[in-house]
# Entry
Amino acid sequence: MLCPFLLPAQEPFLEVTQYQEKAEIGDQVDIYIKLRQSENLVVNWPDVKESIEGLEVLHITGIDTAKQDGQLVLTQAIKVTAWDSGAYKIPSLPFSYSIKGDTVLNTANSPESIITFTRLPIDTSRAIAPIQEPLDVPYTFEEFLPYILTGVAVLILIITIFLLIRHYRKPKEKIVKQPPPIPAHVWALEKLKELENLKLWQNGAIKEYYISLTDIFRHYVERRYSIRAMESTTGELMADLKDQKVKRELLEQVEYMLREADMVKFAKATPPETDHVQNLEIAFSFVEKTKRRPEPQPAPEAIIAEEETQEDEIKTDTR
# Structure
């Protein structure tokens, strides 16, 4: 069944293809989602697996990108099945999209579809067979196997207890304190500097450059703000950063960098060389302006004065 749906802005074309409307329990049904769009659009793909309820999702592919007739064609395949009879709904899926460089998001929903799974037919024409007498069979190795395994398990338990007693009777080794972890901003600045020195985009590896750039940025955000930046879409990540009270100017710069990176990674876009340098500078600037400031430490004189005050209080109490 083919369910086309036309989105409004720039007229991208959405198809949901389902070759079977009916299947038997346990059969595998393939569903294909195809989106045709112009290159100046950024489309956020929904989490299809989380949206489908009742059906078991056996396999879901990544989003395949191709170019056809001057447009981008994005395709994803989903294989589902069911283990109970009934009609299962493939829900309407929300696709948010915007024009490149524009922060205004539009949303379009795909049409719903139905897959009906039926039970296997029962042959009522054949007579019911009579009950057979139980067969007298000799004991087999499989019947003795549980007893053998029980004995082996008891033996292993005894050996384990012996080794544990021997281990804890040894003198305890001194625990070496591990150095504190590297602060998130120090790590991020080092990684960004390493990326700059690799000169990936200068050697034609533009996609690898943007993958590394966004990975470093998302790792920093995840450590700095304790949010799941690595698993979030660009839209979800921007919403989380707004909740963290990040300045609007920084948010606009970061959103431009992330959406342009999405176009390079998923739509095979090729930004101008000035954008490569600018996006790296945006990442450097974001880390510098959002890094945690060290808490002020008390002066040694204040610590000594506090210790003397505590000693005087103890002497007074003892009197």
